[in-house]
Amino acid sequence: MRALVISGGGSKGAFAGGVAQYLMQELNHQYDLFLGTSTGSLLISHLALQKIQKIKEVYTSVDQESIFSNCPFVIQNKYGVANIGINHWNVLKNFYKGSRTFGESHNLLKLIKNTLTPEEFEILKTDKKDIVVTVSNLSLNTVEYKSIKDFEYDDFCEWIWISCNYTPFMSLVRKAGCEYADGGLGSMVPIEEAIMRGATEVDAIILHTEVTHFNRMPSKNAFSLLTSMFAFMLDRIERQNIRIGKFVANNNNAIINFYYTPTVLTTNSLIFDKEKMTSWWEKGYDFARTKNVELSAFEPEQ
Fold it and tell me: Looking at the DSSP assignment, which residues form a beta bridge with residue 142?
């Protein structure tokens, strides 16, 4: 049983799309299980449908307006570097309405439903492949994995949305009596879950470099500090997920093929830029091709 696992990573998900495209179209990898966290959850349904060009066009075209119904920050470009600053008016407006987060991401839910049709959902639900998204249950202090087999269309679209909600910048969702947020808060790279579901070979796309290549610049404002803190925590969670995944794989005779980003794509994955994301998709495709050519060169001849 082969599984494709895509980690969280915001706008860097475009790189994962390129890697997955190469694995599926050029290497003809057939996956029984697609498992995604956060941005990965946006990709997996369309990859399972083999509608790669469709999700590429949608994914590389999103911007802040496509995601946020109330965006809590503004993008500031200085010396060619993009940073985020606080949109004080939008944040105050959100608090005035009684929200517990700085911003709201209801536009993302609309985008998910506009992109994944009810007809496509039914095709996936009746197919032998399984589609699973990761969410964090803040009320019960646990990570949950939501399979397409267990839900109807509206509910599953909401679980995809919840998996992507990077609180406190995006919506905090109350569902089934509990509060839910981004799956990456608990499991950035759900390799262990893939193996527990029966995977014997896992292609894991990690939207992070294998080794840290940079020192973060000093924080310029409260949002900059928050994003740096969250990036630090998520990085620790990701590395722990990978260590646990390797341990579980060794004890279950499973194989993991890792695809890390070879370079630092961005230091702020909340910034969505069409030109950069299109470039990252192509970089992901080229990286997967180069990596597999190098691996094949070391394989012994039959």
Answer: 137
